[in-house]
Sequence to fold (289 residues):
Amino acid sequence: MNFTEKLGAGAPTLSFELFPPKRPDGWATLYATLSEISRLKPDLVSVTYGAGGSTREKTIDIVTRLKDELEIDAMAHITCVNHSRDEIDVILNRLRDSRIRYILALRGDPQEKGIFRKAENGFGYAYELIRYINFRYKFITGCATYPEKHIESESIEKDIEYLKLKQDTGAKFAITQLFFINDNFYRFRELAVRAGVSIPIIAGLMPVIDISQIERFRNLCGCIIPDDLINRLTKYPDRVVDIGIEYSLNQCLDLLKNGVCGLHFFTLNRSYSVVKIVSDLRNNGYLLS
Fold:
């Protein structure tokens, strides 16, 4: 079964997120990661979009290579930032011509000082972009959601309103921002279902590989990091990667036992931790290929 079929059948999906490197020496790392994760037979690999569309060409190139050379279903991120409708049409037409089926439609990060500015003849919200894509094209469109509240949002309830709006304008699945406390995900999922959200909600996960990530996670996305994890990472700085793997693996086991629709790993273009986690899940029968 492919990604969409698994979601429809209630079988948990496996997906990874990569990003186009900003520096020339980052491409070797990316290609090594692609080689490693391709062996895990993911259902989908997504490729992010640089701030303001700065990596647009690279994103298209990578998703095309994933599909054509590695025979992996690929998903391109598209954001509203700095793009008019005409520019978005150019991107979508190229992806359509490359036979890419999946799009993750996002508003994108504010351009400066936390203030998002809508481009001239562009879109100010992800749901507007999703509606436009689904009116004019035949992509399978996904969206983002935030189980611990978007950093700019007034409440979880408001985030769920926007998730429902994204669903109603054509999103077929949602991928969450990263989180470390599963109970927060379960609470969000329950509230979303009560509010009429019926699309699959896929859990976004990131194993810690560097203790310096902790503060960055908090600042960028406002995720809540449990004290016991911080204390362990601080106490055993030479075991950060192993602790990150162990914590993320336990998260995955609990999520799978509680009916998660899928696992989506933010890899930071590094393969070691996610390969260990997914291999363990597969070897013990928790995640089917």
About this structure: Strands lie at 13-18, 44-47, 74-79, 102-106, 140-145, 173-176, 201-205, 262-266. Residues 3-283 form a domain with the TIM Barrel fold (CATH 3.20.20.220). The chain has one domain: 3-283. Residues 60 and 203 are 25 Å apart (CA to CA).
